[in-house]
Amino acid sequence: xxxxxxxxxxxxxxxxxxxxxxxxxxxxxxxxxxxxxxxxxxxxxxxxxxxxxxxxxxxxxxxxxxxxxxxxxxxxxxxxxxxxxxxxxxxxxxxxxxxxxxxxxxxxxxxxxxxxxxxxxxxxxxxxxxxxxxxxxxxxxxxxxxxxxxxxxxxxxxxxxxxxxxxxxxxxxxxxxxxxxxxxxxxxxxxxxxxxxxxxxxxxxxxxxxxxxxxxxxxxxxxxxxxxxxxxxxxxxxxxxxxxxxxxxxxxxxxxxxxxxxxxxxxxxxxxxxxxxxxxxxxxxxxxxxxxxxxxxxxxxxxxxxxxxxxxxxxxxxxxxxxxxxx
Length: 327
Ligand code: SIN
Hints:
This protein is of the alpha/beta class. About 45% of the residues lie in helices and about 20% in strands.
């Protein structure tokens, strides 16, 4: 090999890894709602904050509206490292931990203050780590809001729902909740719910004011009950291998971005939930039943036995901490 050729070749070989590592690593963040929701806004802020400090090393590619995958698929994709981030409802972690089922238990948290106290306490913080052995690390919680019941026909008492098909997130607690009401639970990904309601494949569903409003579920669900019977909590998650491979400094930046983005998302979620509730209350085509304490007690009586049924699955200490946060 002549010396000039060798010099050029060796130079190219040396340059190659430098050029490759100079490219920032692309990290995919998938979520299922639209970009104008609190989730969309928080994801946008997370990207901005991460890239402000680390754009020489990482860029975040946001894929909204379930265009890449639904939430359940996103959980698996984060665990396997196929994508870096997602913020699914905790109801979708059933294959990874039993403990997070505590959030699905009906009427366990009286309000968002109780949820917050539980999440920020030692047990709630430990739950962020409950899937780390299976490839998922939690970076914090998103309050999507309290769930309300909706249907295509009037209902006031639990027996009014008997025989109707209700869409659920794929969670055995939620399945049992609707079975206790005599309804038929139908697990469906979020992006398919509107069409299933329009086609009358399902006659009801449970969701937050924001999801009911932004996804226009009210067009096929004129009857609603302000039941606040459950909380739709999300968790910002990342891949454990990716997380553990970061330097301390990088982890600090990602943690800061997650914290700020979730604070922002939670504040927006609270405000948007209140606005969307008002918007639905003002619609002439929508009938929102607001039960008193006595009426709600009938619903609690049917649903609350699930607490005992799931005590050992979620852990007696976890259930006790959740109950204590509400007292
Ligand atoms: C979401 O708010 O992320 C989706 C909730 C659902 O699947 O009902």
